[in-house]
Amino acid sequence: MSDQNVWHSHRVRVRFQDVDAAGIVFFARVFDLFHDAYVEALRAHGIDLARVLDARTWAAPLTACDAKFRRPMRFGDELRVDIRAELVGRDLVLRYSVRAASDGASEHASGTTTHAFVDRATFARIEPPEELRVALRSAAE
Predict the structure, then answer these.
(1) Hey, what CATH class is 3-140 in?
(2) 20 catalytic, yes or no?
(3) What global pTM score does this model have?
(4) Out of 18, 20, 48, 54, which one is annotated catalytic?
């Protein structure tokens, strides 16, 4: 993933509770890495997810997700989670790349999450909120 396409980059250190008995990141924890990076990306682009959820106007539940594992991640590893984001129709598609924070040369994991936008009161599909459209445009400039 080239840096010019990155919407947000988030640094994290693998925590002890993230690894399994084999000493590597438990597979489901990769989705925690993705989600934490997503929340931080929203915050960095002016969208406070806690405020959005408190206002009960919209939500962005997952409709699909996947992950690929290429290299082990171990307790204490410093990682960088890069996100590319785009609107595809009414869905937000986020593509993640997890790399060593030190050099970013080798990819440890990658994945995609797809989010629909819904009205919190009715759970009916809605268009992507304008504040998200602005956040995506600001990253492209």
Answers:
(1) alpha beta
(2) yes
(3) 0.91
(4) 20
